Amino acid sequence: MPDASYVLHVWSSQWGLQSLDPICLASIMYLQLSMPGKFQVAESCDPDMSPNGHLPFLTHGHLAHASFPSIVSFVTSLSRARASGVRNIDASLSASQRAQSIAWWSHVEANLGDLVSHMFFGVDANFWGLTRPTLTSVMPIPQRYYVPGRIRESYRRRLETSGLWCLPATEQEHKSPFAKNEKKRDDHTGTFTRAFEREKVMEKARTILDLYARLLDGKKFLFNSHPTSLDVCLAAHILLLANPPFPSSVLQILLLEKYASLVDHARRVQHEVAQSPPYELAPPSKSSVLSLFTFGRAVTKEAKTSNPDDVRFRRMRWAWVTLALGAAAFNVMQFSKALLILNVEDEEGDEDEDAYDEGADLEEDKDED
Amino acid sequence: MASALTLPAPLKKAFSLFPLQTHPPVPFAVRFPLVKPTLWIAPPRTPSVGHVSLLSTDVECLKWQAYIALRGLTDVAVRWDIPPEGALGGRLPTLHVPGTVADGNLLVAEDIPGWVDSQVTTGIDTLDGYKDEHAKDESHAWVSLLEGVVHAALILSGSAPSPFDMFIHLSGNKRRPIEAILSPPPAPLTGFSSFLPTFGANISLSALHPQYTEAINAVSERLGGDTWFLGSANPTALDAFLFAYLHCILHTGDVTRLEVARYANLVAWERRVGTKVEAAFCIALREYRE
């Protein structure tokens, strides 16, 4: 399909970044570096359209590729065709560096990804104060009422296993009338638990961020003098920890103050990406309430071929359905006509109906008859 | 407090009809004193011909078996007659070491490195056996790769338990679910926005296969012809990890096994390390003589 364009479906842009999800942001930045101006971005709020149930996914005609590694491998295969004009930004890596890059990708997605999901979904204050309102503003009714909660639930098991789930809000300032009583009772144990949990999370974050700071080691980019897919992946996660205005921002402050090298690296990647020509926004697909009732969606609904065989097939199919329904209606009418005839002859039937309405005299009438 | 309240006399008389007698503790000798440290593992494979392997079929148990063996310990017994519910924390492996208490001490898997350190006479190594700081950092990346995509592929390639099995063993399974292994976690099978309550996980082996193939390729590339992974002079914890996954994959379903079997260096490495690991263990004989 030479005419079909490459469309990347992502979560919408927020907070000065191209998307509110780290993997979506990484995909956009990667495509801007490897195939600038050759793709469109469709802002979507419906992850169920994707083959694996998550955004981002890249469509090209009938093909769809979901998840960042499969998008990268698809673009790499495109770059091998010389006429496509697509660049492979990992081409300068040696085989050993490429292998290390794959291992580091999975580390970034697992550990930094956990920290990002902890900030967005794990901390109560952030979820209710930032994530949920943002997701609600991009989703239509009725999804906005239950989908953010479901997305949060899907992260629960992973965050619970890593010990990053649902810290009680540390910097909350309740002004509710009951707060004073609660505070007096739970103050000591609550404060200690909160401080201990917070310290555990900070320790974990410090270990992870130290690792990346050592990996970066003052270099401009991780491997070469230009960004690779690993730089893009790392930068996307760091930007989503640094940019959004979190209500409970302890981790963000730690990142901005102590790990300036990582933030600088992320800004450098952003700057490189900004130098590519901007992408077009594809028109957003309409969502219908009826689509909520389907189970297991097909991915591509856009293939409107004007194949004459298909048109004929569609017409014949509708003709068959109409004929079948017509025949069924005709049969029902015939059967109900037969019923009508019986009712006119049998007067007791009418009496029974009246007796049913009256109630008490029913059985006496029946006995007499 | 005790002096302020005294028992009234009639009650005292009533209680004296039922005197409390305390007996001294009865000493009993331990029937089967523990001679060697014993590791409780999930049962190994039982091939129809040939000798019984001592390597567990469960990845977690095999990781710790390999760790103990590669740290240089020998003459450790294994037993596999204890189900996971009987182990400490409801999870295998558990290490039973002869200790100061007559029955010996039970150690959870996380305490095994500490015990091994106490048994091994070499000094403390800040680099944990790796070549340098950079290699040590890189080992974290490889661990997350193995624990992520490779572990998920291994789980998905195993046979799914029937609903009857899941009903019977409802509380027994304390393994990590697939939702906790992958990042980002898989979407529910019913979708986020459908009106049906969420159920299942939208993940399959075919969806993971490209990432799994890339991961195995990367592992093979990085191993190359080295004796130990990441070019370490001596075996490290990462080698134990890698051996456990390779061994389990090579004895499992076809699709995942073929990917690893394509790389001769991985197969040869696994075989070499396997003989070394197996040599460190023996069967806990008491149970099998009876």
UniProtKB/TrEMBL annotation, chain A:
Region (Disordered): 346-369
Biological-process GO terms, alphabetical: mitochondrion organization; protein transport
Domain Metaxin glutathione S-transferase: 209-269
Principal subcellular localization: mitochondrion
Domain of life: Eukaryota
Keyword Membrane: yes
GO CC entries: SAM complex
Annotated protein name in UniProt: Mitochondrial outer membrane transport complex Sam37/metaxin N-terminal domain-containing protein
Species of origin: Pisolithus microcarpus 441
From TrEMBL, chain B:
Signal peptide range: none
UniProt domain Metaxin glutathione S-transferase: residue ranges: 214-273
SUPFAM superfamilies, alphabetized: GST C-terminal domain-like
One of the record's GO cellular component terms: SAM complex
GO terms (BP aspect): mitochondrion organization
PANTHER family with a match to the protein in the record: METAXIN RELATED, METAXIN-2
Protein's name according to its UniProt entry: Metaxin glutathione S-transferase domain-containing protein
Species this chain originates from: Pisolithus microcarpus 441
The organism's taxonomic lineage, starting at the top: Eukaryota, Fungi, Dikarya, Basidiomycota, Agaricomycotina
